[in-house]
UniProtKB/TrEMBL annotation:
The chain crosses the membrane at residues 31-49, 55-72, 79-100, 112-133, 140-161, 167-185, 197-220. It is found in: Cell membrane. Its main location: membrane. It is a multi-pass membrane protein. InterPro entries: Bax_inhibitor_1-related. This is Carrier/transport protein. The keyword Transmembrane applies. Belongs to the BI1 family. Keywords: Cell membrane, Membrane, Transmembrane, Transmembrane helix. It comes from the Bacteria. One of its GO terms (cellular component) is plasma membrane.
């Protein structure tokens, strides 16, 4: 089950006057908060795995996710927004724990999880580097990415009811592409002044990483013949 990325982040606005120093500070704060968020998510996931927590109801997962996303958006300009980010990332980590437990129990499951983690890290570094090194403005991708995310998320919801394997694989492949583009797009938005709120930038990047990892897990499992 994939979650859509943050639809509440400020759109990339062309022509905003933001100094290079200001953009660098936003980028630094974003990466710092993203790193802490990954620690929170990993800890919550480990706790769920160690406690052998069962699968969380998918509708509860989605409902709490959107509630925390709305709360983060509302608190994005205050220190409370940081706690909301930790709540959001902790929740996603916690609900992912039982899923990872399931994957590790299939033949070659641990290798699949490790490969998915490595692939996620590699794609994040590569897409971030493209934006940072080329300094290209990728705001032209905004409509394509947002429409693509909404369509892919709608398809993933539909597949909860229809359970079509081919559709599930197509959704995962779409989220790999869209999440990769989102990482590049969000990084570009920061350095070009289209995103000046590091809390919302962190949410976009974290959810992109989350969707990328979960989608790679699904695709790799299917390729291994264990799906």
């Amino acid at each position: 089950m994939n979650n859509p990325t943050n639809p509440y982040s400020a759109p990339h606005q062309h022509g905003i006057a933001v100094s290079g120093e200001r953009a660098a500070q936003v980028l630094k704060n974003t990466y710092m908060l993203l790193g802490l968020s990954l620690v929170v998510a990993t800890s919550a996931s480990w706790f769920a795995m160690a406690s052998n927590i069962g699968f969380v109801n998918v509708w509860l997962t989605i409902g709490v996710y959107f509630g925390l996303l709305l709360a983060t958006n509302a608190l994005r300009n205050s220190a409370w927004g940081i706690l909301a980010v930790f709540g959001l990332t902790g929740w996603l980590g916690f609900t992912t724990g039982p899923i990872i437990n399931m994957y590790t129990q299939i033949p070659g499951g641990m290798e699949i999880v490790t490969t998915a983690l490595a692939g996620t890290a590699g794609i994040f570094v590569a897409m971030s580097a493209i934006a940072l090194v080329t300094r290209k403005d990728f705001s032209f991708l905004t409509n394509f990415i947002m429409i693509g995310v909404l369509v892919a998320f709608g398809a993933s919801i539909a597949n909860i009811f229809f359970a079509i394997p081919a559709l599930s694989l197509a959704v995962s492949a779409a989220f790999v592409l869209l999440s990769s583009l989102l990482i590049m797009w969000q990084t570009s938005a920061i350095i070009h002044g289209g995103e000046t709120n590091y809390i919302m930038a962190t949410v976009t990047l974290f959810v992109s990483i989350y969707n990328l990892f979960m989608s790679l897990l699904h695709l790799l499992t299917a390729l291994s013949g264990n799906d």
